[in-house]
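#struct-queue
[09:14] JT: dropping the first one here, sequence first, then the structure tokens:
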Amino acid sequence: MNPVKPTINGKVSVTMTDEEWTVMIHALRQRMARLTKADPVELWWLLEETLERVEDNRRSNIQLTKAQFFALFSPETMRHTDEPFQNITKRCMEPLRQQFTKDVRHTQNLYRSLKTAQNY
């Protein structure tokens, strides 16, 4: 699997082989089948949207929103794949996950500082 890259438009570009996409489609279907009424309905819609996006893609490369990306490669979805596939995926995804986490923290800190400034 090739590295995953953020795009200029804020999405995530993911490139995998046809076999790898087949594994991910199966994993998404398995995760959706295990959702319960206790799970938020928004999660079902996100997974459904992600599944449709991946299934409709006819190329090895796809651009996903960050929400779709994290739904696809979340631990809850990845547990439906075998361990070697999980290990390869984790190695490729980790740098991007760290960058997104850093971006989220930065945004949260900025929001807190703006909120504090408004209180004065």
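[09:21] JT: and here's the second one, same format:
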Amino acid sequence: MPKLDVSVKAETIAASRAAAAAAGMNLSNWTDKVLAEAAWRQRFSRSAERERRLGVTPEWLAQHKNGIEEQRAAG
């Protein structure tokens, strides 16, 4: 198991507790939620970077979607 020796400021813990309480959660659940969201953001970021390297742009996606819709409409 990795060593998780982390120093956290008291203000950060207090703000996290307040955010957790506002969401109806305890600090442990809030931490799990925040870490899960961070993992998804990292995964999305890697996916977006891979798409950029492949040349997938918003314009390409829109054109691709329009092509699919035209195929569906054609039957």
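[09:30] RK: nice, looked through the second one.
[09:31] RK: The chain has a mean pLDDT of 89.
[09:31] JT: good to know. DSSP finds three helices and no strands in the chain.
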